[in-house]
Design brief:
Layout lengths: L3 H25 L6 H17 L23 E3 L8 E3 L2 H15 L5 E7 L2 E8 L2 E7 L5 E3 L2 H4 L17 E9 L2 H13 L8 H9 L4 H5 L4 E6 L8 H10 L9 E3 L2 H14 L7 E8 L2 H7 L1 E2 L2 E2 L2 E5 L4 E13 L4 E13 L2 E7 L3 H7 L6 E5 L7 E5 L16 E2 L2 E4 L7 E3 L8 H12 L11 H9 L14 H5 L6 H13 L5 H7 L7 H15 L2 E3 L1 H9 L3 H5 L6 H11 L2 H12 L6 E3 L12 E5 L6 H10 L3 E3 L8 E4 L5 H9 L2 E3 L1 H9 L2
Parallel strand pairs: 2-13, 24-25, 24-26, 26-27
Antiparallel strand pairs: 1-6, 3-9, 3-10, 4-5, 4-7, 7-8, 10-13, 11-12, 14-15, 14-17, 15-16, 15-21, 17-18, 19-20, 20-21, 22-23
Helix pairs in contact: 1-2, 12-13, 16-17
Length: 678
């Protein structure tokens, strides 16, 4: 928690940066931060002001609506202020808002939830049913007269039907550009050699604010009504119904809810389904349904108490770097990680983000104390995208790598981006061995249940495991002498270690942690060994003997094994220490059998590359085995070489990339159907 003095300094920086970003967006139709990152800064501002209400200032971004009137447009005062909305990001914040409503009203209201469209707010004023003025939100009090521009939109009625009230009548909504139209506009920009537009929202805003209405007419803008504040109705739902009767398009997926449970179900459903909408949305507006209650709740600052904007879990956000931690991996590579203030990203709390390597730190100029923009897409590890330079404190200094880590020198080979612990001394570093054990025991390798990060660290620190082979020498008495082990957990670990002796050879090869050798390369080596040995069940001693006969040239001749990978495998097979460990594994009864079957006919997926993404109903490895049995190859990334993407629930960036490239997407049922047809 920040002290009052620290909070005051941080608030000053936040206000200045948020004002700068809002000016870029609302007055210049551009931005250098994503909307999600800006939302994150605004949320931090609100949280700090709630913690220290005495530090709230009248000019704080939390107290006013963003935007201003550009030169060249006539100023128009709004008869009824166009307010902004308070953002909420979690179930807890939503429930907190509901509890405040309950306290102020004395009884629970019902709610009306509507998707919040990614557009540009506008007020349409009709006089005696004829469009008189169209005004931007501006600062909420005064906006810009864009009537001539809005008259070019087919979705805005120039005259209302007889059902509309006579006299002055106001309609409010969003001007937006659909995803398809945005794509077409950018295609036209590319053809003409012009820069592409960053996002539909900024393009919509810039298109409305063209001084030449003819340019606005070319931009495929659409007006979507979200409210009719001047209508004499009882509920917010009635406003939507009335707007439809008058000929306005209203977002069709809104829902009346009697409880926050219903509201939350709606929000959770649309968190994933929104990707299928033809227009962008980053959240939903939750309104108090009854207009009388809404008016009774009133306004606080710039926002009505009777409505909030729930933001879907963002893949981008901001946080402060409190430290940079260096961790060493199983191959000796040192990875820098930013340690952060907690932030919600993609539905999870993030406190760590990878900085990849020294070059990335230097390129981004990340310093301890910086506010950084983070991204976490789907199941991808959070990473630092950029630094918000306007929030850099004076104390922030460039990060310097130390000369040693754990007493072992750090080296950086020419042409490499990564620092490593000196290979000659790496084996003396317990952290390297710990990571090797974790990898060896992982589900994709030897699948030793109960041997995770903490247990690996304990075994190394106790001196019971000095190499991978030592795992097979562990005794019940040794485990029981360690803190954290009970009789059942010790027995289970020993049983799992024993069972791992019969894991397939490809799992052992992958588990050995040979540099550059992943699961696919391990399978390639096994295929080669099968060709050399023929049909049968071959024990580890026999397959290793064949591998040791290979040269770099013979290894490089294998499919998908280049010079770098071949060199890494050959280096491992000629390293005296590693060969001692391999011999010990054989002597301790590790079979790691290679099963070679008689040649089967070509499978239905022969020559096809598939990518698995999202949450599947079965373990991915199980699905991958079926694909390989049908002749297919499973890849971890989507590219133009991918033939199919199999998407489970909550599929993220890989699914979007497949759609962008026009790759066929299958669900699990579709894959099963294809395999059954073989």
């Amino acid at each position: 928690m920040l002290s009052r003095a620290q909070a005051s300094a941080r608030l000053q920086l936040l206000r200045r940066e948020i004002d700068r970003q809002r000016a870029l967006v609302h007055e210049h139709d551009t931005s250098d931060l994503s909307e999600a990152a800006l939302d994150s800064l605004k949320h931090e501002l609100s949280a700090l002001e709630a913690q220290y209400p005495e530090l709230v200032t009248p000019d704080s971004p939390s107290q006013r609506v963003a935007g201003g009137v550009l030169p060249g447009f006539r100023k128009v005062a709004h008869t009824q202020r166009m307010l902004s909305l308070q953002d909420v990001f979690s179930r807890e914040e939503l429930e907190g808002w509901h509890e405040r409503n309950l306290k102020l009203l004395g009884e629970a209201p019902s709610y009306y939830v509507e998707l919040k469209l990614d557009g540009f707010s506008l007020s349409l004023v009709y006089e005696n049913r004829v469009l008189a003025t169209a005004v931007t939100r501006g600062d909420g009090m005064v906006g810009e007269d864009v009537t001539a521009q809005i008259r070019t939109l087919d979705s805005v009625p120039l005259e209302l039907p007889p059902e509309a009230p006579a006299g002055r009548f106001e309609v409010r909504g969003e001007v937006l550009i659909t995803k398809a139209d945005f794509h077409l506009i950018n295609e036209e920009q590319i053809k003409e050699g012009k820069p592409v537009y960053a996002n539909p929202r900024n393009l919509a805003a810039g298109s409305v604010r063209q001084l030449d209405p003819a340019l606005t007419a070319k931009r495929r803008l659409r007006f979507v009504c979200f409210g009719v504040p001047s209508a004499e109705v009882l509920t917010h739902e009635d406003e939507h119904l009335f707007a439809r009767q008058l000929g306005f398009w209203v977002e069709p997926h809104s829902k009346a809810c009697t409880s926050t449970d219903e509201v939350w179900d709606f929000l959770q459903a649309w968190d994933t389904e929104r990707n299928d909408l033809p227009y962008g949305t980053d959240g939903a507006v939750v309104n108090v349904q009854e207009r009388a209650y809404f008016q009774k709740l009133g306004v606080v600052g710039k926002a009505p108490r009777g409505a909030v904007a729930y933001k879907f879990p963002a893949e981008e956000g901001t946080s402060v770097v409190r430290d940079i931690e260096l961790t060493v991996g199983r191959t000796g590579v040192v990875t820098p990680t930013a340690l952060l203030d907690p932030v919600q990203l993609a539905g999870t709390t993030v406190q760590r983000a990878t900085l990849h390597n020294a070059d990335q730190i230097a390129r981004l100029d990340v310093r301890i104390g910086d506010t950084v923009v983070l991204r976490k897409a789907g199941d991808i590890i959070p990473e630092v995208l950029s630094v918000v330079m306007g929030l850099r404190p004076p104390s922030a200094l460039p990060f310097q790598y130390p000369e040693t880590l754990g007493g072992v020198p750090l080296v950086r080979a020419e042409g490499e981006v990564a620092y490593r612990v000196d290979p000659a001394a790496a084996r003396t570093l317990g952290a390297v061995l710990q990571r090797q054990i974790e990898h060896f025991a992982s589900r994709g390798a030897m699948d030793i249940r109960g041997l995770g990060e903490q247990t690996a660290a304990t075994l190394v620190e106790a001196g019971l495991v000095r190499s991978l082979a030592d795992l097979y020498l562990l005794t019940f008495e040794q485990l029981m002498s360690l803190e954290g082990f009970a009789e059942i957990s010790a027995q289970n670990l020993l049983a799992s270690i024993q069972a791992s002796k019969d894991r397939p050879l490809s799992k052992l090869i992958y588990g050995l942690g040979i540099r550059h050798v992943g699961e696919e390369t391990a399978r390639t080596l096994c295929t080669f060994l099968g060709q050399q040995l023929g049909v049968g069940r071959w024990p580890l001693a026999r397959t290793i003997a064949v591998l040791r006969l290979q040269t770099e040239a013979s290894l490089q001749a294998l499919p998908d094994v280049g010079a770098v990978v071949a060199s890494a495998i050959h280096t491992y097979l000629t390293d005296s220490h590693e060969q001692v460990v391999l011999d010990q594994l054989i002597d301790l009864g590790v079979q790691a059998p290679l099963e070679v079957q008689a040649q089967a006919r070509a499978g239905v997926l022969t020559g096809k590359t598939l990518v698995l993404t999202g949450t599947l109903s079965r373990p991915r490895e199980e699905v991958a085995l079926e694909i390989r049995a049908a002749g297919g190859k499973v890849s971890g990334s989507v590219s133009s070489e991918t033939d199919y993407v199999v998407a489970g629930e909550k599929a993220g960036s890989k699914l979007r990339e497949a759609e962008r490239l026009g790759i066929t997407v299958l669900d699990e049922a579709g894959l099963a159907e294809m395999l059954d047809a073989a």
